[in-house]
Amino acid sequence: MSPSLPILWRIKRLYVRFMLAFIGHGLAKACRTDKVIQKEIASLPDGFTFSMSVMPRGPSLYMKKSDGRIKPGRKNSAAKPDVDIQFKHLAHAFNTLSFQEGTTDAFARERMVVDGDLPASMKLVRCFERLEVVTLPKLIGRKIMRYYPDISLKEKLVGALQIYLGVFAGFVMGVFVR
Fold first, then answer.
1. Rounded to two decimals, what is the model's pTM?
2. Is residue 169 predicted with pLDDT exceeding 50?
3. What pLDDT does residue 4 have?
4. For residues 172 and 130, what is the distance between their CA atoms, to the nearest angstrom?
5. How far apart are alpha carbons 153 and 163 in whole angstroms?
């Protein structure tokens, strides 16, 4: 085994961990500011939970809906989430979260497993895609999405600014709260 392989693996793991945290804080902020995501989340019941992780014990994200909002949380090991999204390998998670491969392509190529409420998982996919549309440059978004919707420059810039500031605040508050 090459000596650089463990270092590269650690970097990928750290990146995936960061991106899962970004998705969590970004979705939480977008749930308060983006009308499209608000509509999708509104139809989910309070207490709804979902997780996204890397098999077998890799980085993970856990979210719960309460008071009409979806928020990052800690997984209760006793309760199974309503929707559980698992990447089969760190490399698959890295390729998807570094925008080399779209989420739908990764699923179609069996790089991830989705377990739980199918209609709710489709709502989450639409939320993730909306988050990508708002926060990513169009050049990247078009490459990884099956359909890139029309969005005005103003809506994209205002939405991206709100989400990025919310994510930054989430990271800062997370550092000070822990």
1. 0.86
2. yes
3. 63
4. 24
5. 15
